[in-house]
Amino acid sequence: MTTSLESYQKSVLNAFLNKDGRLKNIPSQKKKKLVVLEYLVRQLNENQSYTEREINEFIKTYHEDFCTIRREFIVNGYMDRDAGNYIKRDEALWTKWQELQ
């Protein structure tokens, strides 16, 4: 990642995460939202299946609107859902905020 992309990512995370690491609010701008979603999904374990309840509890440690964030994980290709279980997808399949204008 280039220095300017790293700087952008850091500034977005600083703007939307409080000092405790909780999300102040969900960004409305798509690029910023993807930066935040990517940060959150990176906190999950690779190749681990999560129940819907587990993923909800994980998200609630960052923000109370777990339904919106869980849906965004699926819509933007960060996770797959199968029979109520969630698993992090390969990073190559994620929507890339770095490619947005």
TrEMBL record:
Pfam families per the UniProt record, alphabetical: DUF2087
InterPro entries documented for this protein: DUF2087
Sequence ranges assigned to domain DUF2087 in this UniProt record: 22-86
Entry superkingdom: Bacteria
The protein's name: DUF2087 domain-containing protein
Source species taxonomy: Bacteria, Bacillati, Bacillota, Bacilli, Bacillales
